[in-house]
């Protein structure tokens, strides 16, 4: 391979780092790949670091020492996050999204990678300082959102099941009252899925009364886990009833949902 010019090398370095977010890459790897000195790579990385800060797309962490290297931390700028959430709120306000029974259709948006990736970055930025060890969600619609958040944080994800699965092995199960249906339901988690005393970040797509979030918190107590944060995409604020959990972060609030007039009001609160 021909030796790259500096501009070409910087583009290649940026691509390598962005394809492996939160992964420590030794400088020697870049030096060998691009056939140049580590001191030259260090200068390139300083330029890349400056470009990332200016663009608001993340920053680089440099670890010194023999086992050191550089790590790319993905981020989203405040301006871009505001635009993403405002656009999402506008799409949710479409009267065609009101379903029979007074439900809001969100499934198509929750499985769209172009929407999910920035949402994951928003949650990651909000909870990174809490230093979670794992991202936890409950099946089904919260899984994609939790997965992109886990990816942005460089963490594993754990999925709580609705009922026992024979393929999960020995499980811990609890009953909880669903905030939306007010029915008693069961959630379970394999004993192998979560190590004791881990720091847990809960991510879910929707919260009405908070019964599911409370159930997850109670289940985490069975694993002696410490819940360090709860992130919710859409929080229903249609009634004045207090939520069953506190200290959560919601990105959007559902203020009104009228199936008769066809009016929906979703606003960004981030």
Describe the protein.
The protein is of the alpha/beta class. Helix 2 crosses helix 3, helix 4 (78-92) crosses helix 6 and helix 6 crosses helix 7. It is globular and about 65 Å long. It contains 8 helices and 12 strands. It has helices at residues 6-19, 27-33, 38-55, 78-92, 107-110, 113-127, 143-153, 211-222; strands at 58-63, 69-74, 98-99, 103-104, 134-138, 157-160, 171-177, 184-190, 199-207, 226-236, 249-258, 263-268. 36% of the residues lie in helices and 28% in strands. It has 2 domains: 6-74, Orthogonal Bundle (Arc Repressor Mutant, subunit A); 78-268, Rossmann fold, CATH 3.40.50.2020.
Distance between the termini: 48 Å
Percentage of residues in helical conformation? 25-40%
| Shape verdict | globular
Q: Which strand order does the major sheet show?
A: 6-5-9-10-11-12
Overall number of structural domains: 2
CATH class of the largest domain: Alpha Beta
Overall structural class, as computed from helix and strand content, comes to alpha/beta
| Number of β-strand runs | 12
- Please indicate the percent range of residues in DSSP E strands (runs of 2 or more): 25-35%
Number of helices: 8
Average pLDDT reading: 92
The main β sheet shows up as: 6 strands, mixed
Q: Based on the coordinates given, report the CATH architecture of the largest domain.
A: 3-Layer(aba) Sandwich
Supply Rg.
22 Å
Q: Determine the CATH topology of the largest domain.
A: Rossmann fold
Low-confidence stretches: none
Element string (H = helix, E = strand): HHHEEHEEHHEHEEEEHEEE
């Amino acid at each position: 391979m021909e030796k790259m010019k500096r501009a070409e090398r910087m583009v290649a370095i940026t691509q390598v780092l962005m394809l492996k977010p939160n992964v420590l890459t030794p400088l020697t790897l870049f030096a060998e790949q691009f056939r140049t000195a580590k001191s030259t790579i260090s200068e390139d990385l300083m330029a890349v670091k400056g470009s990332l800060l200016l663009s608001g797309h993340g920053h680089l962490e440099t670890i010194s020492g023999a086992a050191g290297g550089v790590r790319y931390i993905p981020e989203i700028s405040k301006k871009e996050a505001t635009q993403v959430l405002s656009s999402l709120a506008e799409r949710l306000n479409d009267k065609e999204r009101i379903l029979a029974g007074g439900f809001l259709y969100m499934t198509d948006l929750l499985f769209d990678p172009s929407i999910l990736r920035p949402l994951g970055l928003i949650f990651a930025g909000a909870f990174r300082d809490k230093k979670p060890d794992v991202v936890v969600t409950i099946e089904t619609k919260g899984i994609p959102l939790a997965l992109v958040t886990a990816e942005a944080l460089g963490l594993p994800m754990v999925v709580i099941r609705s009922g026992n699965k024979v393929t999960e092995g020995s499980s811990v199960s609890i009953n909880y009252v669903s905030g939306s249906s007010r029915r008693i339901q069961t959630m379970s988690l394999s004993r192998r899925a979560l190590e004791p005393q881990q720091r847990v970040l809960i991510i879910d797509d929707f919260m009405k009364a908070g019964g599911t979030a409370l159930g997850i918190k109670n289940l985490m107590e069975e694993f002696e886990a410490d819940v360090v944060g709860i992130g919710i995409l859409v929080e229903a604020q249609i009634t004045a009833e207090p939520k069953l959990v506190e200290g959560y972060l919601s990105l959007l609030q559902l203020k009104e949902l009228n199936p008769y007039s066809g009016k929906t009001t979703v606003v960004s609160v981030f």
